[in-house]
Specification:
The chain has 468 residues and is an alpha/beta fold. It has a single domain (3-466), classed as Amidase signature (AS) domain (Amidase signature (AS) enzymes, Alpha-Beta Complex), CATH 3.90.1300.10. It has helices spanning 3-7, 11-19, 25-43, 51-66, 112-119, 162-169, 186-192, 226-236, 254-258, 280-295, 311-323, 334-341, 346-366, 393-404, 408-413, 442-456, and strands at residues 46-49, 81-85, 123-128, 176-180, 195-198, 218-223, 266-269, 299-302, 372-376, 417-424, 430-437.
Length: 468
C-alpha cells in the first residue's frame, strides 16, 4: 500500500493495521503530519498543528506496541491520528473559537468528549478551523486564512466544522471531531463528500460545560465511512455526572449494529419543503436516494414537516448563543456583532425557547408515522469562498437560512441525523442527502447509511487536490 492509499484508509482499518504491526503509530503520525505540512497552507484546515505533542505520544505508543504481546487489549483506536475542532478545549493547546483575539488562550482542562477520544487511543494532530464562535456555515473568520474545499479551492468546505471536513476529505487525518448546533457537522460533510453524524440530544456529553443552545448543540464525527462514524460514536457517547440531558448506552455497540441490515422501514421523502426552494441537483439526489432505499425493501412516501415556524425562534436562540459567549462585540465580525444586537430581553429568549420546544414536538410527532425522513442536507450546493462577504449582516443571515434550512430543525427536535454523499453536481463538487431518524435511533440511521454506502461506493472518490 502506498502512502496516499494509507492516508485514505479508514480509521477502523488503520486500527487493525496497527494491531497487526503492519504500520506503527509513529509512522502514521509522521505520514499525516507530512501531508498537513504540504497541504494546509492551501486548505486552511488547521489553526494549530501540535506536531511535537503528537510525535511524543506516537513514539510512546509505538514503544508500547513493541512491548505488547496481545494487542487485542489495546484501546480500540490505539495509535490512530485525529483532529479536534477549535471550539472545543484541549488542555495545553490554544483554543481560539475562531476569534483572533483568543489566539493565545490556552485551556487548563479538556472537554469530556476529547478525553474519551484520547482514552480510546486517538492521537490529536491539532485543532481544526472553525467560523468565528462557530456561528456561520462557512469557515472564514477574520484574522485567519479561510478554510477551502479540497474538491475545488475556490469553494468553502462549509462550517462551522469546515476545517475538520477539509482535513478528512484531503487525507490530512482519517477522521475528525466536529460539533453541530445548526448543521455544523452535516453541512461540512455535505460540502466535502463525507459522512457527518449529528447524534441525538444527550447521546454525547457536553461536560464540563452545561447546557448550550437549549441542548441543540452536540459533538459529532466527520468520517469517510459509515463504519468509522459508528465506531467513533461508540467512543464519544456516554453520560458524565451532572449532564442535563442523557440517553442510556445501547446494549449493542453502534459498530456492531451498523453491520446488520435494518428491517423494512417507512421513509418519508422530501422532494419539496413547504416555503423553500430545493435546487434541482439537490432534489435529484434525494429522488435517487429514495429509489435506492425502495430497492433495498423500504417503503417510500412523499412527505415533509413544515419548518417555517421554527425559523424566527431558532434565530433568536442562536443569536442569544453568540451573545452568551461573553465576547465583546467590538472584537467580533460584523455578522456576529449584528447577531448580538438582535438579542432581546431574557423574557424574549425564554419565550423563543418555549416556542421552539413546542414546534419541535410537532416535528417529532411526524415520526410517529415514519421511521425516516430523507431530505437534502442543504438546499443548494456549496458556495464560493467569500461569496457573501460584501453583504450586510441581515442579508448574510437570509442567505445562510436559504442554504442550511434542512439542518436546524433536528437540532431543535434533538433527533439524530446523518449526511451521506450522493454524487456530484455539474461543477464536480459533492452532493449530499440527509437521513433523519426517530429520537435515539442512531443505530437504525447507521444501518440505512451503510446500505446507501454499499450501493454508491463513495469511498472510491478522492478530491484532485489531495494527490500530493
Amino acid at each position: 500500500m502506498n502512502s496516499t492509499d494509507l492516508a485514505f484508509t479508514s480509521a477502523v482499518e488503520l486500527a487493525k493495521l496497527v494491531r497487526q504491526r503492519v504500520v506503527s503509530p509513529l509512522e502514521l503520525t509522521k505520514l499525516y503530519l507530512d501531508r498537513i505540512d504540504r497541504a494546509n497552507g492551501r486548505l486552511g484546515a488547521f489553526f494549530t498543528v501540535t506536531s511535537d505533542r503528537a510525535l511524543t505520544l506516537a513514539t510512546a505508543q509505538t514503544e508500547t506496541l513493541a512491548q505488547t504481546e496481545d494487542t487485542r487489549h489495546l484501546p480500540p483506536f490505539f495509535g490512530v491520528p485525529i483532529s479536534v475542532k477549535d471550539l472545543t478545549p484541549v488542555e495545553g493547546i490554544p483554543c481560539t473559537r475562531g476569534a483572533a483575539v483568543l489566539r493565545d488562550r490556552i485551556p487548563n482542562s479538556t472537554a469530556a468528549v476529547v478525553a474519551k477520544l484520547e482514552g480510546a487511543g486517538f492521537n490529536i494532530l491539532g485543532k481544526t478551523a472553525t467560523s468565528e464562535l462557530g456561528s456561520m456555515p462557512f469557515t472564514e473568520p477574520p484574522g485567519f486564512p479561510p478554510a477551502r474545499n479540497p474538491w475545488n479551492l475556490d469553494y468553502t468546505p462549509g462550517g462551522s466544522s469546515g476545517g475538520a471536513a477539509a482535513a478528512v476529505a484531503a487525507g490530512l487525518c482519517p477522521v475528525a471531531h466536529g460539533s453541530d448546533g445548526g448543521g455544523s457537522v452535516r453541512g461540512p460533510a455535505a460540502c466535502c463528500g463525507l459522512v457527518g453524524l449529528k447524534p441525538s440530544r444527550g447521546r454525547i456529553s457536553q461536560a464540563p460545560a452545561g447546557e448550550h443552545l437549549m441542548g441543540m448543540a452536540t459533538a459529532g464525527p466527520l468520517t469517510r465511512t459509515v463504519a468509522d462514524a459508528a465506531a467513533m460514536l461508540d467512543v464519544m457517547s456516554g453520560y458524565v455526572t451532572g449532564d442535563p440531558y442523557w440517553l442510556p448506552q445501547p446494549k449493542t455497540s453502534f459498530l456492531e449494529a451498523m453491520q446488520q441490515s435494518p428491517p423494512p422501514l417507512r421513509a418519508a421523502v422530501a422532494t419539496e419543503i413547504p416555503g423553500w426552494a430545493i435546487e434541482r441537483q439537490c432534489r435529484q439526489a434525494v429522488e435517487e436516494t429514495a429509489t435506492q432505499l425502495e430497492a433495498s425493501g423500504h417503503r417510500v412516501e412523499l412527505a415533509c414537516p413544515d419548518f417555517r415556524p421554527l425559523v424566527e425562534p431558532f434565530r433568536q436562540l442562536f443569536a442569544a448563543g453568540v451573545a452568551s459567549t461573553g465576547m465583546p462585540p467590538e472584537v467580533l465580525s460584523p455578522v456576529n456583532r449584528w447577531l448580538i444586537s438582535q438579542v432581546g430581553t431574557v423574557v424574549d429568549v425564554l419565550q423563543a425557547q418555549a416556542k421552539l420546544q413546542m414546534l419541535a414536538r410537532s416535528i417529532v410527532a411526524f415520526f410517529e408515522e415514519f421511521d425516516l425522513l430523507i431530505l437534502p442536507t442543504y438546499l443548494h450546493p456549496t458556495v464560493r469562498v467569500g461569496e457573501w462577504a460584501q453583504l450586510p449582516p441581515e442579508d448574510v443571515l437570509d442567505a445562510v437560512t436559504n442554504w442550511i434550512l434542512p439542518c436546524p430543525p433536528f437540532n431543535a427536535s434533538g433527533q439524530p441525523s446523518i449526511a451521506v454523499p450522493s454524487g456530484f453536481d455539474d461543477r464536480g463538487l459533492p452532493l449530499s442527502v440527509q437521513v433523519v431518524g426517530k429520537p435515539g435511533a442512531e443505530a437504525t440511521l447507521l444501518q440505512v447509511a451503510a446500505q446507501l454506502e454499499r450501493s454508491q461506493q463513495w469511498c472510491q472518490f478522492r478530491p484532485p487536490q489531495t494527490v500530493l
